Amino acid sequence: MRSIPVRAQAWLGRFRLPRPGAEPGYGSWWNAIASTRAGAYALTYVVDDEDDYRSRGWDGDENSFGARQFIEMAGLGLRSRVLEIGCGLARIGREMAPHVGEWHGADISRNMLALARERTNGLGNVALHELPNVGLAQFADASFDFVYSTIVFMHLDKEDVFQYLLEAWRVLRPDGLAYFDTWNLLHPDTYRQWRNTQRGNVGGSKVRGRIQFATPQELRTYLEDVGFDVLRLDDDRLVRALCRKAPVRPYEPNDGRPPFGYIDEPRNGGIVKERLHVAGWALDDVTRIEVKVDGRLVLGDARLGCPRPDVAEAFPRYRHGIPCGFALDAAPAGVAAGRHTLQVVATDTSGAMTDLAGNHRSFVFAG
Known about the structure:
Blueprint: H1 4-13, H2 26-33, H3 37-42, H4 50-59, H5 67-74, E1 81-85, H6 93-96, E2 102-107, H7 110-119, E3 126-130, E4 144-149, H8 158-171, E5 172-183, H9 188-197, H10 216-226, E6 228-235, E7 238-245, E8 260-265, E9 270-272, E10 276-283, E11 286-293, E12 297-301, E13 303-306, H11 309-314, E14 325-330, E15 338-348, E16 353-355, E17 362-365
């Protein structure tokens, strides 16, 4: 058995990942890491040997859960169909497979999958899948009872994490359970690691598989936005979330959140000669949009209900997405020639208000 300091150095080494190549894809990065068995094992939490690796796969370790914990928390049995996103060498899957109906491991690295295939040889209910890109397009809707990803999201850009959450929701059956984790930026230990490594990951020096961090509230926001009910959120070195697939619900107009939107016209700093045309869109059950100049001169209320199918497509969970446009044409009487600020204040049914212009939108009145 190796010493505790050696184990600690191996754990810390995950924050100082090697640079095996400049190619930007996740698959290329992980294939380079897993080009040798030693490299693949070192980057997937093994410190000692295969027996130790199997033990960690079943019981977990000081940071990550193992198959035993997942089986217990998700109530898995011999009829359960399970998917692991970023399965690596099947550290967990090899131990979980004998206790479930089907275990599917998906990974973007074919080299990792080749080693996983060796480790799961002889297990008839194991299927391994190479992911061609970020996403789970090869899996059908509502086809799994449990989806999990552990010690993976911290290697991904946030946009890609969100995409995997969307896909995990899609492939889960109704009321199916899911588990995800990532490093907690707000924990003192992991914040120090971020602070110590961030200087080497700025601008063009960023490594594709570098360790990244999130806050508990950030992960919760992603999960709830995707359509998960968060059943449990642990806040330690890792942010750990156990959640249930819920039907996607539209945003409620009385949720206390202010409306939001965008002003298409006038362009910032644009020249207005005789009439001021204000147009844009606003969401969250907006009941009124008041237009002012310089915070004091009221030009009137914009006309609501202008069709904006482009906005409805971009924000499908908001009710009344298509008629979310607004417009106002006004003669800015009493406005002197020169530059002025514009205020476009949207109010929703709960009384929450937002200035869509943010006191930064200006126009030049030519008189």
